[in-house]
Every structure is written in structure tokens, then in C-alpha cells.
Amino acid sequence: MLEQLDSIYAQALDELSDITTGDALSGWERRYLGKKGEVTQLLRSTGKLPKEERAAFGQRANVIKNELIGAFAGREEAIRQHELATQLEEGALDVTLPGRPVQTGGLHPATQTLREFYAVWAEMGFQVFRSRDVEDDETNFTLLNMPPHHPARDMWDTFYTTTPGVILRTHTSPGQIRAMHELGEDGTQPIRVILPGMCYRYEQISARSEVQFNQVEGLAVGRNIRLTDLKGTIAEFARRMYGEDKRVRFRGSYFPFTEPSMEVDVECILCGGEGCGVCKYTGWLEIAGCGMVHPIVLHNGGYDPTEWSGFAFGMGPERMTMLKHGIQDIRYFWGNDLRFLEQF
Ligand code: PHE
Fold first, then answer.
1. Ligand 1 center from residue 313 Cα (angstroms)
2. Ligand 1, atom 2: nearest CA belongs to which residue?
3. Which of 319, 318, 300 is nearest to 310 (CA)?
4. Domain 109-341 is found in CATH 3.30.930.10
5. 291: Cβ below 6 Å to ligand 1?
């Protein structure tokens, strides 16, 4: 019976190698491995053998059965592949059809403006310094020369959290304090950084104000930094960002953490100073608040204000983006409307 088994095995493999269709393959399976198949029946008849031969025969028969099952699966896969290839050749699938277009993402318009800012400031030697969105009241206000109950705190409508003293930053200026402590090495090293990031204000949302928006803060601290350095730096930024011929003007203003404080206007980027709807016929667009870092703030950052000085500025990239593209409503920025976003 062992010999019979081996010859069935050889014959089955031989036949299998000639099979090219699924039907023939099923027939083969039935014939050898099915309930009444030759191998199955031989296995069943193990009991008829003399006791001492049964184990050896049973083992061999099982090995052969498994080999055949494996060979069957291999053949089945080969036939399937072959059928697929023929289908393709015969055109059941037109492989020359153009694919379905993939939706590509894009950079948010605010991100685009931010990146332009980074590039220009990097050229001018300002490194990006990231500071936290969730701030403490002390860094956001007190250390910036606004002790509790200081009336200037009213300039920033604040989101408070349920944890006393923990707020969402209302501007990027608290990053000045953090940068001075992290980079200043106890008030011994100069600093030149920009601090970009999201700010939060408890405002009535309207076409002109949102509860969140980006700011790009700038901070330079050194031994001989003067107001003329601030003016030159901002003017150079405006030229690089908006064109060689652009003039800037500085108007006196007030911030508790700078002294003196100013606001900066650049000649209208749309009408070039002629006067238009965007600049409200003034010819100028406001681009930043700025000033010389207040001695108290320098001190709070670990510097000796009798030896060190610095300037700081804050810009609003969303506003710049709105002016540039004529976007009338700031709510589009975080409204997640693809019809808006896809235009950039
Ligand atoms: N933090 C100010 C604001 O939110 C802007 C500013 C930054 C002004 C740095 C002066 C210096 O409006």
C-alpha cells in the first residue's frame, strides 16, 4: 500500500503541473483530496493494515496529503494570476484610463504669510523662538509692567481658565520674558529673535476681530541698541517684504512694556500711497506696534537696564494677508471653508 501511495502522489503532481483552468483544478482536488478522493480513501484504509505497518503508513500518507494541499494552493494562485493577466490583456480593465485626481492640500494663507515673515526675518538674523500659548497672568501682564489692576490690562480682553492665574496669552509679548530667561544666560548674552504664534482674546467675533489670531513678535537685546536701530530694522523689513520703494512712518503710541512706544505704517501696498478703499484713503497701512523695551521689562528678563537695551515689535500676519488679498472678513481664516482655503 505504501507503493500505491507513492505512485498516486507522483501521478497527482504530474497531472497538477498540466492544469491551467480553475475547473480542471477543482476536478483534480475532488479526485485526490475530496471525501472520496484517492488519497483520502487510502488514508481511511489504514485500519486494514497489519498493526506494525499502520504508524509508518499513516505518517507517510499525512505528509503526502499535506504536500498535495500545498501544491494545490500554489497552482490555484498561479492560475489566478494568469487569469488576471489575461483579463488585463483582453481589456477587461483599461489600464490606459487616466487615474482619478487626488485632492492635494495646500498651505493655509496665514501660514503662507507667516513663512514669508520667517524668511525675511531670518535673512536679517532673527531666529524663531517658540513660546507657550497657555500663559500665566504674571508673564502675560505683571512682568510686562502691568501689575494687577493696572488699567492698561483693559487693552487685552482675556480668556481665563478655571485654574487661577492661568490664561491664554493675549499677545506674544510674554514670550519676550521667556526668551530673555532662556537665551540671555542671566542677562549676559544679546538676543535677536522673532516669536510667532497664536494669541487669544475674549472679543465679540466680527468681520474685523476674531478670538484667535497670530502675532509675530520681535525682540532684540544688546548693549548699544537704540531707537534708530528699531526704525532701521522695521524699515528694512518693510522694504524686503513689500518692495524697495516702500516708505514707512512711525507714530507715537503707548504700550506699558515699551518706552517710547510707536505704531508703524507702511505706504499702502495696493495703491502705493495714492489713497484707496483698503487704506481708507490715507495712503498708509498700519503694520506693527513697537518700541524700546521698558527698563522694568529688561530687569524682569534678567538684564541690567543700565547696561543693556533693546527693541521689540509685534505684527499681525492675518491682517497683512487680508490687505494683500483683499479679504474682507477675518472669520474666513478659521472658518474651515474649503471654498475659501482652496483659493490660495
Ligand atoms: N503686544 C502688543 C499688542 O498685542 C504689540 C507690541 C509688541 C507692541 C511689542 C510693542 C512691542 O498689541
1. 6
2. 314
3. 300
4. yes
5. yes
* Helices 2-18/51-90 angle, 10° precision: 0
* Total-model pTM: 0.72
| The 3-state secondary structure of 44-70, one letter per residue | HHHHHCCHHHHHHHHHHHHHHHHHHHH
Per domain, the residue ranges of the chain are: 2-90, 109-341
pLDDT digits (tens, 9 = 90+) for 108-162: 999 999 999 999 999 999 999 999 999 999 999 999 999 999 998 988 999 999 9
Convert 215-252 into a string of H (helix), E (strand) and C (coil).
EEEEEEEECCCCHHHHHHHHHHHHHHHHCCCCCEEEEE
Any atom of ligand 1 within 6 Å of the Cβ of 217: yes
In degrees rounded to 5, what are phi and psi of residue 135? -115, 170
Substitution site in 154, 171, 176 for ligand 1 pocket (most atoms within 8 Å of beta carbon)? 171
